[in-house]
């Protein structure tokens, strides 16, 4: 039977690529739910093409345009952030692709888990903000979380068949972004246009800025810690500018398993929603005869302080990673809007982490409160 997919964040980079995968495999998948933040026109285009059961536009001011544009199609139209959480409860949904940007993906993902939907997770901030809570919900509800991030997909694939073997180290690769090898003097003057030019991956603006600052790798370190139940000191970040090895695992006997492929997000997306089957594709292949070299470097934590801050939050635990994540969302927004410089993002995040109330064992309500508190603190900080 076809797997019926709900895509939370269908107009973003992961969402549009997921629709491409579905379109290429019509015998395997069909679109059941599409949601978007404010891009109602693209949401309407997608709905007309794929005819889902329902769509949700989170921005309620765009509801009338969306409803009117779809009035002649058999598509239900809802609006508001609560509706995004509600539609994942539909009995007709088999898999929820969690591709919303930032903290906004947390509550819908938890609700999907509580209603026993398979979660294909692209929203790393969900586990950064509330990893212990989300993983416990998944365990209690016997719901699989299958990672879509290329790095975590690679780790996941490397662990298949290794259930009883001890992990010595997770090898988490990073391209290094557009500023690999640059010093703080250079970074002090960079503009958003430079930060948005990623050398290997086509991603949304927020993820691309995070990649440039290496915060993305910090978020992925915390995500890996929760997904694969390893302490942060067993996760090693490797700068790998070719982006052909997507990550791997070193086992206690010294053996290393890695997953390789061309830098194309459709591959881990297809693997996640097709799991445990590998579906045929025409995606680009590696030509090993044209591969000149694979190189690896250590990240410079003095230059890219966001990665250091994320690792610190992971070690301290509690709600600190949630505060760090909230501050980063504000920092990225301020940088994109020319309110602060590139290096000032780290300053803003650090100050917010220091000022936010610390809770060692937070509940979900505590996490929500922490996010709100840290967001306000970060918004009010003047650098």
Molecular structure report:
With 383 residues, the protein is of the alpha/beta class. The chain is built from 16 helices and eleven strands. The protein has helices spanning 13-24, 40-50, 63-69, 81-87, 106-114, 124-140, 150-159, 184-187, 192-195, 205-213, 215-227, 266-274, 305-316, 320-336, 344-355, 364-380, and strands at residues 3-8, 29-36, 54-57, 76-79, 95-98, 118-121, 145-147, 167-174, 235-239, 245-251, 256-260. The strands form two sheets. Strands 4-3-2-1-5-6-7 form a seven-stranded parallel β-sheet, sandwiched between helices. Strand 6, helix 6 and strand 7 form a beta-alpha-beta unit. Helix 11 packs parallel to helix 13 (305-316). The chain is globular, with a radius of gyration of 20 Å. The model has no long low-confidence stretch (mean pLDDT 96).
List the main descriptive attributes of the protein structure presented here.
16 helices, globular, alpha/beta, 383 residues, seven-stranded parallel β-sheet, 11 strands, four-stranded mixed β-sheet
Computed CA radius of gyration, to the nearest angstrom: 20 Å
Strands across the major sheet, in which order?
A: 4-3-2-1-5-6-7
Mean pLDDT over the residues:
96
Shape: globular
Total number of beta strands? 11
Into which percent range does the helicity of residues fall?
Answer: 40-55%
Structural class: alpha/beta
Straight-line N-to-C gap:
56 Å
The biggest beta sheet, please? 7 strands, parallel
Count every helix, treating DSSP H or I runs of 4 or more residues as helices.
Answer: 16
Show unreliable segments. none
What are the secondary-structure elements, in order, as H or E? Answer: EHEHEHEHEHEHEHEHHHHEEEHHHHH
Strand content: 15-25%
């Amino acid at each position: 039977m076809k797997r019926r997919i709900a895509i939370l964040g269908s107009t973003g980079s992961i969402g549009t690529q997921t629709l491409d995968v579905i379109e290429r495999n019509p015998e395997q998948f069909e679109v059941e739910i599409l949601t978007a933040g404010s891009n109602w026109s693209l949401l309407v285009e997608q709905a007309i093409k794929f005819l889902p059961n329902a769509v949700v536009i989170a921005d309620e001011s765009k509801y009338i345009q969306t409803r009117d544009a779809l009035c002649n199609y058999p598509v239900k139209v809802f609006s508001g952030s609560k509706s995004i959480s509600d539609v994942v409860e539909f009995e007709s949904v088999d898999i929820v692709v969690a591709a919303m940007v930032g903290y906004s993906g947390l509550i819908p993902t938890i609700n999907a888990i509580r209603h026993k939907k398979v979660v294909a997770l692209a929203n790393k901030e969900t586990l950064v903000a509330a990893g212990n809570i989300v993983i416990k919900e998944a365990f209690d509800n016997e719901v699989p979380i299958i990672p879509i991030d290329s790095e975590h997909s690679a780790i996941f694939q490397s662990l298949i068949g290794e259930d009883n073997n001890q992990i010595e180290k997770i090898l988490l690769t990073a391209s290094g972004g557009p500023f690999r090898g640059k010093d703080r003097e250079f970074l002090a003057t960079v503009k958003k246009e430079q930060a948005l030019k990623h050398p290997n991956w086509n991603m949304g603006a927020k993820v691309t800025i995070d990649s440039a600052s290496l915060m993305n790798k910090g978020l992925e370190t915390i995500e890996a810690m929760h997904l694969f139940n390893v302490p942060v000191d067993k996760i090693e970040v490797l700068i790998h500018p070719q982006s052909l090895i997507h990550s791997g695992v070193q086992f206690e006997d010294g053996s290393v398993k890695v997953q390789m492929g061309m830098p194309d997000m459709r591959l881990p997306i297809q693997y996640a929603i097709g799991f445990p089957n590998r579906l045929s594709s025409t995606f680009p292949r590696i030509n090993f005869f044209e591969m000149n070299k694979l190189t690896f470097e250590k990240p410079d934590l003095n230059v890219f302080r966001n990665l250091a801050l994320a690792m610190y939050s992971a070690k301290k635990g509690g709600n600190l990673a949630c505060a760090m994540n909230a501050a980063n969302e504000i920092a990225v927004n301020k940088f994109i809007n020319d309110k602060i410089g590139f290096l000032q993002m780290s300053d803003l995040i650090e100050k917010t982490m220091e000022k936010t109330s610390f809770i060692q064992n937070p509940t979900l309500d505590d996490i929500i409160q922490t996010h709100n508190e840290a967001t306000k603190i970060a918004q009010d900080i003047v650098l």
